Amino acid sequence: MSFTLRLMYEMKDKVDGDCLREAVRMLEKRFYYLKLTLKKDWHEFYYVENSLPWVVTESEKCIPLNGKESNYHLLAFTYFGNKISVSAFHAQLDGIGMYRVAKALLYYYCCLKYNKKLDVSDVALPDDEILPEESIDAYRWFFEQPAENDVDVPPSQKQVKNVLKLQQMGLAGKGERISMQISLPQADLMKYCSSFDGSPATAIALMVADAIYNLHPDSGKEIVVGIPVNLRPAMGLKVSHSSTFSKIYIHYSEKLRKKDFETQGTICRGTVIRYSDKALLRKQTKQYCKKLAMLNMIPLRSLKQYAARFVANQMKNAETADVTYVGKCDFGEMNQYITSIQPSVDGYGLGLILSVAAFAAGSYSLV
């Protein structure tokens, strides 16, 4: 299934399948609102509740979502050797939402496997009260809130035209996936980024942009790298499971390219700070919600499909590559049982994707 977000955890010990299955049963109780199937009616998609159990499969490969292998769920679990993989439909869960689910799963699993009571700080437990904001449609809820009188809202970022795309770079076509993993020492990268007031996300985005330019210096097109930004603080939804993020774009222009890397990093960090302004993000999110509402008001399905495709193409044409980074993944006492984390996003047509996870044990994983 396209648009699939995956987190693979390499454990220090061989995975106990029975403990993992029991942990998933506990997870079902806590996150019951994620038990959904995606249905299609003509050209429209919608969710329906799914009472079947989540599937835990012993397999080296991740199983497809929304099909027979996953009991038609949008969340599935596999294990092989010492690895545990969690797969989710990215339109349902983003990296932050996925991390919350995975942290709970690993907590249940480690408690069962090692017969220990571990620290429960920031872990969603089966008997916890389910907050209303967890299971709501975040965008619909936000759209229904009264408009705020935000003052001094900075202007929105202008979209760059003539952007270099994946197919023009001679890389994988539709249906193909090329994946590789790189590990970077966390302390060293943080120290280097701090020296020029940069950040890991912007530094990695610039490395990606420079690599693409060196491969295609004569393309005549613009290189743009998107960096997702978490919308929850701006929307006032702390623990929403919804895929709630916007994008900030790093335009690797000729003017920026001529500067040294440290100066580039400082400038791009400033760009991210500027366009992460909460008032601006609220304004942009309201505009996005209005577009969704307008799409739903179109009476003819053919026209609605055409309009939706137009909006989707605008998003696809906005960037050359994507660097997704949700911050440090700290699993507390579970860290002692985890060796590494590998995030990845399967082809949803937006181009080259670099998924970054900062593991508390001390390394960045780039996939």
Keywords:
single chain; 367 residues; six-stranded mixed sheet; globular; five-stranded mixed sheet; alpha+beta
CA-CA gap between termini: 19 Å
**Helical stretch count?**
11
Instruction: Work out the helicity level.
Output: 25-40%
Q: What does the average pLDDT come to?
A: 86
Strand proportion: 15-25%
Strand tally, please?
13
Shape estimate: globular
Q: Which structural category do the helix and sheet elements fall into? A: alpha+beta
- Contiguous low-pLDDT stretches (5 residues minimum) are none
Radius of gyration: 21 Å
The sequence of SSEs as H and E is EHEEEEEHHHEHHEHEHHHHEEEE
Oligomer: single chain
Reading side by side through the largest sheet, how are the strands ordered?
A: 7-13-12-10-8-9
The largest pleated sheet is described as: 6 strands, mixed
